Amino acid sequence: MNQVQQLHHKKVLVLGLAKSGFTAARILNQLGAFVTVNDSKPFAENPEAQELLNAGVTVICGRHPEDLLDEGFELVVKNPGIPYTNIIIQSAIEKGIPIWTEIELAYLISEAPFIGITGSNGKTTTTTLLFHMLNQDKKKPLIAGNIGTVAAGVAEKATPENVIVTELSSFQLKGTETFRPQIAIITNLYEAHLDYHGSIEDYRASKMKIAQNQTKDDYFIYNADQPLLAAFAAKCQAQLIPFTLKGRTEESISADGEFVYWQGEKLIERSKIMLGGQHNLENILAATAAALLWGGTKETIIRVLTSFTGVKHRSQFIVSWKGRKFYNDSKATNALATKSALEAFPGQIVLLAGGLERNHSLEELRPYMNRVKVLITFGETADRFADFAENCGVSTIAKAGDMQDAVEKAVGHSESGDTILLSPACASWDQYDSFEIRGDAFINAVQRVTEANE
After folding, report:
1. pTM across the whole model
2. Was 120 annotated as part of a binding site?
3. Is the pLDDT of residue 127 over 80?
4. Does the annotation list 157 as a binding residue?
């Protein structure tokens, strides 16, 4: 771990614990900073705060004192989830105090280079796919970031022989200053998280920070099919690696209906790629380009693409049974994500959808509901989803009580050649504590039904 002299004896406030705040506070303390932690959870219920106190960190728990910044802090490291409308963050902005997320700290302490991946959709799949490619090629990758592993904790142990493949959210990137990945990827950019950012301009600017410090020695991989990203790329200093789904090009990486191409030469037939869907093709092109730029071999990349079935709960292939294919897309907690899933799969779809009622519109799904031959609904939105599907012309609609019932009904209404897809378009909290638990319930139900009917 690099010993960052600029942090030695610096007075730092870590706002919000959870995994990232705890890790940042611990590392800052080791670097010789004077660290104060402020977290809303009461001290008696806060084992992380208790551990930090025993290590010599000043801890303020159970409240956020409005005069906290009167202590003369020189830096704030905040949990990414804390909005910039927070009164302490607002005060820090007024006082001109730098505000970081732990991604900036991870970059400063790391002996290993970074590959950074962001985008509105596809971050996790691209990150995971790239990690597998580099790992099978023995490039010693480490995986970190928004995917669930705190980047600073990974960077703390990284060596110059490693590369840190890092999924980055707009929340994390907004709090960076000098962060500079040797390869930066933006998979795509749509409107999202406006409740946090306040405007689409701030959201876009936060995403684009991934490439702002890059130089001519670095690479920027971006979706050339989006004019906004193409215009941004034209202003970047890095070597540009565009990808496109609109047909073969002689530069960089591209795809048409039959093949993926690298620098104009055929790399792999699309029919041999295990990970399905047009939206996943963006992820495949981005990850493949990054792997090749990092010295990965075409043989290894092809081997991964013909075996990788996806990230769990994100268009995850489960099983092929009696001509039917089952996919778990429980991570689709809004209509936009389910729209991408419906667009991705060919043929007739038996769709399992529903969940927590947030009164959000389903209209984004309308152009794709002609792909749905059967709808199985469940949860609080079951009736509203059924009314919407009937209005879209879906002829067969059934309501299920739970996931087991939903899968049984889906199988009963399906036939060989159909895709049975869980893509709820709703959050899970009406029936399940998380989308992961909901997805696992689907996987278990599929296993029970298919094994019972062999």
Report:
1. 0.81
2. yes
3. yes
4. no
